[in-house]
Amino acid sequence: MGLLNVLVVSILTCLKIYWSCGDEIEIRCDNSNTSKNIFPDTYLSCEPPPVLDKPTKVYVSLQILEIDGISEHQMEFRMHAYLVIAWKDRRLDLEKLISGDEQFRTFPCGAEKFLWKPDIVFHNSKHVLFFSETVPNSRTKVLRDGSIYYYARYLVQVGCLMELHRYPLDTQHCNFQMSLRNYSTLVAEFTFVRRMMSSVVNTYIPSTLVVILSWFTFWLDVQAVPGRVTLGVTSFLTLATQVVQTRSQLPPVDYLKALDIWLLACFIMVSFSLLEYAVAYYVFYDYSDNKINKVHSVLHSYVRETEQSVKRDCDSRCSNSSLTKASKTPKIDRISRIGFPVIFSLFFISYWIHFMNE
């Protein structure tokens, strides 16, 4: 019971404090006397302050807190920022609001809705979120000389038309445009330099290893059909899967990117290594069969008298031929062992020199 009494007293105390604070805020926000003293009878919140028939000067500042959510697929980035707007409105009688030695004061929240504010437009924004979780994240401050400062916190999704010719070795230049309707425009420019480590680890190194793996078929015997075919097809399918996954993260643009050139070259190398085995297999067995046919022709022409001798000689030559066939490495395999690595090395060097120096 003692603990229950303590809890009840604590809850009642919190409720009392809550309602007292709420009453205080309500009185402060709905102070109609302050509003009447500040705004003259002729004040219109839909018209800007007149300055001798000249446009009202509005100063805009953008204080960026963070930038994240950079997306190549959606061609956008997300910006968390404070927007600060400053202007003067001499129609207001601020002497009745700022008293004594005060240099500035927060504008009464109940009267803020009657105040003229510049109409800021975010031109290339896709979505704008104004923070108001507990209370609206905005404030209006007035100075004695009639200057008014408005602060607001926004989360803005900004569109950016990215140029992806050199992706992922690219540098993107984006901008954020704000204006006062049809008047002057404020442009904030951003430069995004891409870090290469993610692309190197996830794309360039795996694709290079797949290409090197496909070269192992050149050291396998030409008669090892299951081993060479399995190795070549596995390399081909692995690289094809990597190409599909990489392209799914990018927008469908109508030009080749630097990454497309790399993956296309790797794809061609793996395809030609698989095609090389088909050529080596055909050339090797076509040469062996022709050699056996020539041996049989010579034997039947010159040794017809003794059938037993001819058969023995034929069997001996055929067996020697098959031994030679089993131990002989096709010339095309010996050339490929050197040619494929040299060609890919030249492409590797020229690729990185070209795109790193642009």
| Mass-distribution shape | rod-shaped
Radius of gyration: 40 Å
Q: Note the gap between the termini.
A: 80 Å
Reading the helices and strands in chain order gives HHEEEEEEEEEHHHHH
Helix-residue proportion: 40-55%
Largest sheet: 6 strands, antiparallel
Q: Structural class, judged by helices and strands?
A: alpha+beta
- Taking pLDDT < 50 over at least 5 consecutive residues as the criterion, the unreliable ranges are 1-32, 289-299, 318-327
The overall pLDDT average reads: 78
Total number of helices:
7
Total number of beta strands: 9
Strand content: 15-25%
Task: Tell me about this structure.
The protein is an alpha+beta fold and 358 residues long. 47% of the residues lie in helices and 21% in strands. The strands form 2 sheets. Strands 1, 2, 3, 5, 6 and 7 form a 6-stranded antiparallel β-sheet that branches. Helix 3 (197-214) runs antiparallel to helix 4, helix 4 packs antiparallel against helix 5 (258-302) and helix 5 (258-302) packs antiparallel against helix 7 (331-356). The longest helix has 45 residues, at 258-302.
Q: Which structural traits does this protein have?
A:
rod-shaped; disordered N terminus; 358 residues; 7 helices; single chain; three-stranded antiparallel sheet; alpha+beta; six-stranded antiparallel sheet
